[in-house]
Amino acid sequence: MRIENLRVNHVVNPVGYEIGTPVFSFVPAEAEGTWLQTARIQVAKDTGFEEIVADTGDRAELNPLGEAVEMELLPRTRYFWRVLAKSDAGDEGVSSTAYFETGKMDEPWASKWITVENEERDRSNPTFRTSFDVNGVVLEARLYISGLGIFEAAINGKRVGDEFLTPYCTDYIHTVQYITYDVKDLLNTAGDGANEISVELGDGWYKGRFGFEYKGDKGFYGDSRKLIAELRIRYADGTEKIVGTDETWTVSRGKVLYSNIYDGEHRDDRTGANPEKLLLLPEEECAKLPLAARLSLPVKAHGEIKPVELIDTPAGEKVFDLGQNFAGIFRLHVHGVPAGETVRVQTGEVLQGGNFYNDNLRSAKSEYIYISDGEDKVIEPKFTFYGYRYAKVSGMDEVITIDDFTGIPLYSDIPTVGKLTTGDAKLNQLISNIQWGQRGNFIDVPTDCPQRDERMGWTADTQVFVPTACYFTDPVAFYHKFLKDMRTEQSVRDGLVPNVIPAFGMPGTSSVWGDAATLIPWALYLWYGDVHILEDCFWSMKSWVDYITRTDGDNHQWRREFHFGDWLALDHPKNTKDQVKGGTEDAYIADIYYMYSAQLVSKAAALIGKADDAAKYAVLAGQIRSEIRREYFTATGRTTANTQTGYLLALNYDLSDDPERIYADLIQLLTYKDYKLTTGFVGTPYLMPTLTAHGDYRLAYDLMHNEEYPGWLYEVNLGATTVWERWNSMEADGSVSSTGMNSFNHYAYGSVGQWMWQTMGGIAPVESEPGFKRASIRPVPDYRTGFVRAEYASASGTWRTSWEVTDETHAKLTLTVPFNCSAEVVLPWAKNEEDKERTLTAGEYEWVIESADPFHTVLTVDDTLDTLLNHPQAKKVMLNYLPQIDQAPPEMRKRSFRELVQEGYDVQLLAKVPLIDAELRAL
Ligand code: BGC
Q1: What is the structure's pLDDT at 39?
Q2: Beta-ladder partners of 412
Q3: pLDDT tens, residue by residue, 248-280
Q4: pLDDT in tens, 647-682
Q5: What is the number of the ligand 1 atom nearest to the C-alpha of 499?
Q6: What is the number of the ligand 1 atom nearest to the C-alpha of 567?
Q7: 648 lines ligand 1 (CB under 6 A)
Q8: In the annotation, is 454 catalytic?
Q9: Dist CA 774 CA 529 (whole Å)
Q10: What is the β-pairing status of strands 355-356 and 291-293?
């Protein structure tokens, strides 16, 4: 047996993270047998496991998905752990040794917060320094450090660590994270042992303008940058040396004159280091900076992107095309620029008229201004990031070459766990767009977009995307930090969940956005099967629902409050280009999400042993359901919410007494729209799953393959390399539709990834055995897609599925069920009863399945009008020749197209029948 994926609190070998009661998880793999019989976790102070601090003993019920082990932890201490396990076939395994290391915990800091004079006037970055000697054999050296806004530390001129934008983005009133680095290898122990540490600070999220509530140059959280650092060196003789920030450090201001998340960076290399006065932060100010061990995963540079072209634009600009929209920084080789001359880099996502364009970034300048000292050098921003595909560089026109520029994607270091490949190149491009959308928006906080003057943790955007994120990557620890920040914000707002997390002073809330408090933990529980996620979040889930209940009062006030609703849907009666509201009544959506959140609180309570709460919130959910039915449904089951999203919610939350009627109404609305969606942030994730659940596979796949506006492949055809904010972010002629709110890297509509994994890949979690210990396997083959291969390294092991359509009625399917897991294979489209349902345990399987309906029907002019009009592409062919034909009465619809034409419906068309027939056959 191999035992893999050892994690503590879902992080691999965390150093200096907030640990609390550690939750251990692992994956038993490649074992003989079917089930895990026993497992045991041992934690020790040493790698030889002689000084054991915790040992669970062999236990049958030990949960590999998350086992909390109570133990006393000491500050700044490394613990080693391993897993010993045995399968039902007697196969035994011992994992390799993993570790975790505590931070300072409650230990007081042996250092002081320091700052610099004139912070309110001088924007240039301060750099703090001190020198120290190392004299002895160094066993260990750790740097515990935090600097606001963003710090970059160096020891003896070498960068400490490989992280960017530290100490990351939190609500700094309540949490200031410190980062722990192992710096042993950076120390100079040779000769006289002279060492120097320096730390430069930029504005970051703390000081600079960020969010909507900043005041001038003063950031929402603060206006003066500050630093605390503590270097601890442990010598072989048992002694310890501490180098901490205090009044003996020096400070100067230097080359970086200005830096800011939205606007970029300004650097003047003619400037030397100008000494400034160092200040100790007054006691009362220090008390306002609650230092806490990190939860943020490291933001790292992930590879490099070389430009595909250096464009000479019609406007005479030099623009690098990186070929991929992403978020990060760049490296620019500056050469041939005389001292005092300026090089300016600006970034944008799309070109317009072949020229550089960035009006959609609104007020974000998103630039880098560099004043040369005449030397050739490579420059790289450090205190900002950009969301871009194109970079315009001015000031080097005569000398610039394509090799001078390199894009560097930055994102939180989250393991990739899923790979989905199809037989359709455009769908594969969409899959890539979804993944890049996630990367660009996972820079410490799950943001809406990475380029314009927002880049904030908008709660709905990420809530709809969580399942998709969980298929492609393992984001639990990333969301763990976000959810902790959410709890912090709620704790000072009586349960209200602000629309963005961290809130940056923004006061509002809304249904669907705030419901992230229940929806995200629940999704993580389904995908990871770790009940501790629900324990951690229970207060937050419950207090959100309590907040709504209080607001709702006795007169349904909640539905009257402001809500964003089905954001960016296309069915608002006043459907202008830059409309943001959808056509589904906000109140209807708000009440349904209130009910669902109450249901989730009840389920979570039951799972963590809070029976009273489970009962209480189940009753509440029932009451809300009755109110919803009274307000928005007729006695016969029709609904007032006559939109695609309205019907989808009614069906998914089982609100109507006549779901068939509601479904028929949904299909009718779709036909009116020529089978195009009109849904926004709320409705979109339900659309294709609902059609699939009703057996309308072809309709669901039609939406996927649709290349016209609105749709995912419309974007792909227009060259998208990420997912857009609006269905119409770009018009068919390539022009940007509006600049008020229009990003080309917004992952919310990438939520379709969930359907792609569950229907194309056919892999979904099962609530009764979450974490993919049991999976629902329901792939639906599609003729146009050809084949799909899915590989998903779930929390319980690696699942693999594939299918390939081999002829008009057969598909070959394969499945790998990992060790210790089981599968419910459900194929309602299969012809033979025995193929429709199977329960399987670990193993590899392969079948050829016959479909009840052909995967591909060849349509001809001899098909009935009804058949042809019910087929989106055939309908288009029909309408092309007979624009009114969709209004034909029922009797006519029963006749074949050939008969109708021959009988004189349109004699002009007689000659064209063979041509139309060929067009239909080619579909
Ligand atoms: C953001 C969204 C967000 C929305 C809230 C926008 O400005 O970019 O994606 O959810 O506001 O309405």
Answers
A1: 98
A2: 299
A3: 999 999 899 999 999 999 999 999 999 999 999
A4: 999 999 999 999 999 999 999 999 999 899 999 999
A5: 5
A6: 12
A7: no
A8: yes
A9: 10
A10: unpaired
One of 454, 489, 715, 919 is an active-site residue; which one?
A: 454
Distance CA 381, CA 369 (A): 10
What contacts 922, CB < 8 A, 6 or more positions away? none
**454 CB near ligand 1 (under 6 Å):** yes
- Amino acid 218: pLDDT: 82
Q: Is the CB of 741 under 6 A from ligand 1?
A: yes
Mean pLDDT of 30-43: 97
Q: Other CB atoms closer than 10 Å to residue 185's CB: what's the count?
A: 9
Q: What is the pLDDT of residue 444?
A: 98
pLDDT at 216 over 80: no
pLDDT at 208: 82
Indicate if the pLDDT at residue 313 is higher than 90.
yes
Confidence class for position 317, pLDDT limits 50, 70, 90: very high
Q: Compute the half-sphere exposure of residue 578: CA atoms within 13 Å on the CB side of its CA.
A: 9
CA of 677 to the centre of ligand 1 (A): 20
> What Rg do the C-alpha atoms of the chain give, in angstroms?
30
User: Which atom of ligand 1 is the closest one to the Cα of 564?
Assistant: 12
Angle at which helices 913-921 and 872-881 cross, to 10°:
160
Test site for ligand 1: of 361, 451, 461, 462, most ligand atoms within 8 A of the Cβ: 461
The mean per-residue pLDDT over the stretch 580-608 comes to 98
Pocket lining: 448 vs ligand 1, CB cutoff 6 Å? yes
Query: Tell me, what amino acid is at 894?
Result: K
Tens of pLDDT, residues 322-342: 999 999 999 999 999 999 999
- β-pairing, 367-371 vs 264-268, is parallel
For ligand 1, atom 12, name the residue with the nearest CA.
564
Residue 51 CB-half CA count within 13 A: 6
Q: What is the largest CA-CA distance in the chain?
A: 104
For residue 146, the 8-state DSSP code is: E
Closest among 461, 467, 476, 470 to 510, alpha carbons compared: 461
**How far is residue 386's CA from residue 327's CA, in Å, rounded to a whole number?**
5
Q: Ligand 1 pocket, 69 CB below 6 A?
A: no
458 lines ligand 1 (CB under 6 A): yes
The pLDDT tens digits of the residues spanning 862-879 come to 999 999 998 888 988 999
Are residues 784 and 705 in contact, defined by beta-carbon separation less than 8 angstroms?
yes
Indicate which atom in ligand 1 lies nearest the CA of residue 458.
10
Please state the pTM of the whole predicted model.
0.96
Please tell me if the CB atom of residue 464 comes closer than 6 angstroms to any atom of ligand 1.
no
Residue 540 one-letter amino acid: S
